[in-house]
Structures are given as structure tokens and as C-alpha cells.
Design a protein that fits this description.
It is a single chain. The chain has 153 residues and is an alpha+beta fold. It has a domain of 101 residues: Gcn5-related N-acetyltransferase (GNAT) (Aminopeptidase, 3-Layer(aba) Sandwich). It is 29% helix and 39% strand. It has a seven-stranded mixed β-sheet, with helices on both faces. The radius of gyration is 15 Å and the shape is globular. The structure holds coenzyme A. Coenzyme A (COA) binds next to β4, α3 and α4.
Length: 153
């Protein structure tokens, strides 16, 4: 259960300088983390990259690719020590607002079937399954499918 967040998280555009911290968190919370180049490319490409600050310190980040009528959620992450406090939900709500402000009518994402925490967050948010990408992700000892989810905004 996520109580009202105190203090409320604040959101700001990700800067190159944030990648030092991001690259500390990313391998702590993913088995197959994004690389520094992945984040640099996202910033260079003009993707909508955000940092969430809690009490003045970074606690999460997200990357959205905005297109005509839709937004693709490429990365949503909460630092391990800050998880299960409602911050993932706050972050996805922020990203929904960004996408709506851009005119997107739906948000899409891929998720590993084995990622129970993320799937529970997406299920409770309103995402619906619309497809499967076989062998989409690298996995320990092979490949893992991706579930494709859609959220009507
Ligand atoms: C997925 C993630 C962003 C959730 O962030 P979080 O701040 O822990 O999530 P919240 O506290 O806002 O929880 C929101 C809901 O998600 C679900 N949830 C979150 N963590 C969960 C867990 N470990 N097990 C089961 N459900 C979980 C619950 O339904 C929860 O609602 P509730 O607290 O009312 O029960 C976080 O676990 C994370 O960064 N994981 C590693 C990166 C990742 O996998 N990103 C997604 C890639 S597709």
C-alpha cells in the first residue's frame, strides 16, 4: 500500500551530469541494465528523459519516446532503497502527464514476464496486454519474451 508521499517527489529533465548516478543505480536494479551509451543516445535523440528527486536527492528516472499519437515507455526505474513507497506509481503518473501534454493517446511498453514488480505496477495502473515479442530480451542462459502492454491515456 502506498501512503501519501511525504515529501512529494519532484521531477526534472535528465541532464548528462545525472548519468553518473543513473549508472550506479541501473546495474543494481536490472539483470541486463542499459549502458551509458544507451542513456547518452536517448538524451541525444531528444527522448523525454526525467529524473525524480525525493527530498532533494535522485530516487528514480524514466525515459519516454514520444511519437505521433503515442508514447513508448523505454525505461522506468526506482532506486532499490526507495522502492515500495509509491514512487514508481508517482513516476508513471508524471510520465503519463508528459505524454498527454504531447498529445499522446496511448502509452506502450515492453516488460519481461518474469518482472513481477513491474507487471503488478502496470496492471494496477491500467495497462493491458496487446502482444508478445518472442525472445526479445537477453536473459540468463538464453532469451526471454517481452509482453507488449498498452495504456489508453
Ligand atoms: C517496477 C518499479 C519501478 C516499481 O517501483 P516502486 O516505487 O517500487 O513501486 P510502487 O511502490 O509505486 O508500487 C506501485 C505498485 O506496484 C506493485 N509493486 C511494486 N513493487 C512490487 C513488488 N516487489 N512485488 C509486487 N508488486 C509490486 C504494487 O502493485 C504496488 O502497489 P501497492 O504498493 O499499492 O501494492 C521498481 O520495482 C523498479 O525500479 N524495478 C527495477 C526496474 C524495472 O524493472 N523497471 C521496469 C522495467 S519494464
Amino acid at each position: 500500500m502506498s501512503a501519501a508521499l511525504d515529501p512529494r517527489p519532484r521531477f526534472r529533465r535528465m541532464q548528462v551530469q545525472d548519468l553518473v548516478w543513473v549508472m550506479q543505480i541501473e546495474p543494481e536494479i536490472y539483470t541486463h541494465p542499459w549502458t551509458l551509451v544507451n542513456f547518452q543516445d536517448a538524451l541525444l535523440a531528444g527522448y523525454s528523459c526525467w529524473v525524480m528527486d525525493c527530498a532533494g536527492c535522485p530516487c528514480g528516472y524514466g525515459v519516454l519516446m514520444l511519437g505521433v499519437g503515442e508514447a513508448h515507455l523505454l525505461n522506468i526505474s526506482v532506486a532499490g532503497a526507495s522502492q515500495r513507497r509509491g514512487l514508481g506509481r508517482a513516476l508513471i503518473e508524471h510520465l503519463r502527464g508528459v505524454a498527454q501534454g504531447y498529445g499522446a493517446e496511448r502509452m506502450l511498453l515492453e516488460v519481461r514476464p518474469s518482472n513481477a514488480a513491474a507487471r503488478a505496477l502496470y496492471d494496477s495502473t491500467g495497462f493491458m496486454p496487446i502482444g508478445l515479442r518472442p525472445g526479445y530480451y537477453p536473459a540468463c542462459g538464453g532469451r526471454e519474451d517481452a509482453l507488449v502492454l498498452e495504456w489508453a491515456l
